[in-house]
TrEMBL record:
Protein family according to the UniProt entry: Belongs to the RimM family.
Organism: Candidatus Solincola sediminis
Protein name as it appears in the record: Ribosome maturation factor RimM
Keywords: Chaperone, Cytoplasm, Ribosome biogenesis, rRNA processing
Subunit note: Binds ribosomal protein uS19.
SUPFAM superfamilies on file: PRC-barrel domain, Translation proteins
Notes on the domains: The PRC barrel domain binds ribosomal protein uS19.
Length: 174
């Protein structure tokens, strides 16, 4: 799942881990569920260089369960090392439409969370990936962990910026 950057207009889709070779290749950690995100020809905004040129991905390869990539103009280990730890950003509209009955993380952050009875719980402040299903961290007068499952999530209205939940037994106990 791509990660939003606070109130930034960008979404992180990957992170450059470290240089991989003397020819400018880098190890990349994908933060995206889109299998095509790191195809050759895609471009990214480098964290800290939001107003500058985009990085163009020239080539990628799977490597040890991860990914290595070569960006245009990054031709030696020193240049690659300067990218270490930086996020690879895109604009939200570049993510495309979310899959049916699914949402991008940046769409959920900041939504007001209410119960089916109209009780306001707070706002979604984090989406936690657990493996089985995502869990929303809702912060208000208290903090709640809301599983992103059909039994709990009743309605997501992105236009109204509201997410309505049905409290399952024990879910809202403090």
């Amino acid at each position: 799942m791509s990660r939003p950057i606070g109130k930034s207009p960008y979404v992180a889709t990957g992170r450059i881990i470290k240089p991989y070779s003397v020819l400018g290749w880098v190890k990349i950690q994908s933060l995206s569920t889109n299998p095509l995100r790191f195809d050759a020809g895609n471009s990214f905004i480098l964290e800290g260089n939001e107003r500058g040129d985009r990085l163009l991905l020239e080539e990628t390869k799977g490597h040890g369960g991860g990914l290595i990539g070569k960006f245009r103009g990054i031709d030696d280990r020193d240049s690659a090392a300067k990218l270490s730890g930086k996020l690879l950003l895109v604009r939200p509209e570049e993510l495309g439409e979310s899959p049916e009955d699914a949402f991008w993380e940046h769409q959920l952050l900041g939504l007001t969370v209410e119960t089916t009875e109209g009780r306001r719980l707070g706002e979604v402040t984090e989406v936690i990936e657990t493996g089985a299903n995502d869990v929303l961290l809702v912060s208000g007068e208290a903090e709640y962990l809301i599983p992103m499952i059909e039994d709990a999530i009743q309605r997501v209205d992105l236009e109204a910026e509201v997410l309505v939940i049905r409290p399952l037994p024990g879910l809202l106990e403090e």
